[in-house]
């Protein structure tokens, strides 16, 4: 693998992480929907007439089944993304020093380099330089692992 291909893998990890955060938000929404659906079958006796429905329980059961199916699908997608990222995330967490922190914040946390720089009190240009140096070190480490 060339260094350019190696760097591209970190862009993919960053994109996967963005997708994972989106899936987590969607799972939370489904969980909230599930909770609101369970309470939606209650009859409001404060009304003048009782609300009529052919089978409110069936509608709730179908909705919960759909939510469960969507939840399972999203969890499987999340697991695949986590598996795809595993090797490169382990490399990132093994990186030492401030360069490792720059790469972690940029790739794993998905922060813009401007925000990484503000967080670490460095200039964005210096953070990009640290990012490049650290990726080069991780590439060399990865190449050594392949050779052994």
Short description:
By secondary structure, this protein is mainly alpha-helical. It has helices at residues 3-39, 56-94, 97-108, 113-120, 124-147. The two termini are 15 Å apart.
Mean pLDDT over all positions: 87
Radius of gyration: 24 Å
Overall shape: elongated
Oligomer: single chain
Contiguous low-pLDDT stretches (5 residues minimum) are none
Q: Characterize the main sheet.
A: none
Helix amount, in percent? Answer: over 70%
Question: Pairing-aware structural class of the strands and helices?
Answer: mainly alpha
How far apart are the termini?
A: 15 Å
Walk me through what this model shows.
The protein has one domain. Helices cover 81% and strands 0% of the residues. The protein is built from 5 helices and no strands. Helix 2 runs antiparallel to helix 3, helix 3 crosses helix 4 and helix 4 crosses helix 5. The protein is elongated, with a radius of gyration of 24 Å. The two termini are 15 Å apart.
Topology, pairings included?
Blueprint: H1 3-39, H2 56-94, H3 97-108, H4 113-120, H5 124-147
Write a concise keyword list for the protein shown above.
elongated, 148 residues, 0% strand, mainly alpha
